[in-house]
Amino acid sequence: MARIIAGVASSHVPAIGAAIDNKQTEEPYWKRVFAGFERSKEWMAEAKPDVAIIVYNDHASAFSVEVVPTFALGCAAEFPPADEGWGPRPVPVVQGHPELASHIAQSVILDEFDLTICNKMEVDHGLTVPMNLLFGSPKQWPCPVIPLAVNVVLYPPPTANRCFMLGKAIRKAVQSYPEDLRVVIFGTGGMSHQISGPRAGLINSKFDKAFLDNLSKDPKKLTRISHLEFMREAGAEGIEMVMWLIMRGALDDKVEETYRFYTVPASNTAVGHIILEPKTRSAGKSKRPAAKVKRAAARMKSDIRRSK
User: Fold this and answer.
1) Residues 291, 299, 260: CA angle, nearest 5 degrees
2) How many helices (H) and strands (E) does the chain have?
3) What was the pLDDT predicted at 284?
């Protein structure tokens, strides 16, 4: 059967995509951000997933205020990069996995989650920036992708608990798919940031780091965070972190934190990133990727301490 082998969470700051596209990754402002993902790219290259499910939010590219689905699942064969006002990003077309996507849609809808099924959809930086950070900038993406767009733009967004429970339904769906596939699920967006209003530029590192801690230690605590608390503590756009809980809900109850990176600022945003793997690994599965990344993370500890 198919199985979810890991969960990855990452910010999807649009300026990160611009830095990649304009070859600015080695500039002093950006170098530290991209250095924090080098170990993650090594991990992903060794993990070699067959499919990635990427939970993200659309930024008025595929959808507008006229139609705003709470959860929209991409079931198409491919997803071209969207023109976000300055032309599409120079990244490969995202190849889909219609068979697994359709299976997930059927399973999750019969579990009483109302999904919008998208057989044609463009994807924006919310999806492609995390792909760059984990897969690099290849001529073709190394695996098919199933996009899951979540409304965190217009009120009311889904609750943290609803997102966590959707993750559990996705895990059930994946595990009932008969083909032997290794699946990685991404939760994207965040961390704390606000891009407009009197609190523009808000970053709450204490809240962010507690959120990262509880993804592995006490995810149920995170499901009790209300919309108001997200806005108060993490800024108006901090609500994007509910998408990380879809990723967390799709994993085993007990997970190991393989790698973590956090830095501020990138543009006006706190950048957070974590890789979680199930504690119970299938027999014969190599632990070398996780061990290698953990050793690398230890070497970066002094850098991460400076970001506090």
Assistant:
1) 65
2) 12, 10
3) 40
Sign of the alpha-carbon torsion through 93, 94, 99, 101: negative
Name the residues annotated as catalytic.
125, 193
What are the residue boundaries of the structural domains of the chain, listed by start?
A: 3-306
Q: What is the spatial distance between Cα 123 and Cα 136, in angstroms, rounded to a whole number?
A: 17
Q: Which two tokens stand for residue 120?
A: 């044609």
The answer to whether 25 and 118 have CB atoms below 8 angstroms apart is: no
Cα angle value 93/250/160 (rounded, 5°): 95
CATH architecture observed for domain 3-306: 3-Layer(aba) Sandwich (3.40)
What CA–CA distances, in Å, run from 292 to 8, 47, 181, 289, 300?
17, 12, 23, 5, 13
Q: What is the pLDDT of residues 111-137, one digit of tens each?
A: 999 999 999 999 999 999 999 999 999
Q: Which residues in the chain belong to E strands, given as ranges?
A: 3-10, 51-56, 71-74, 78-79, 94-95, 116-118, 145-150, 182-188, 255-266, 269-278
Q: Which two tokens stand for residue 124?
A: 């924006």
**Whole-number Å distance between alpha carbons of 288 and 285:** 9
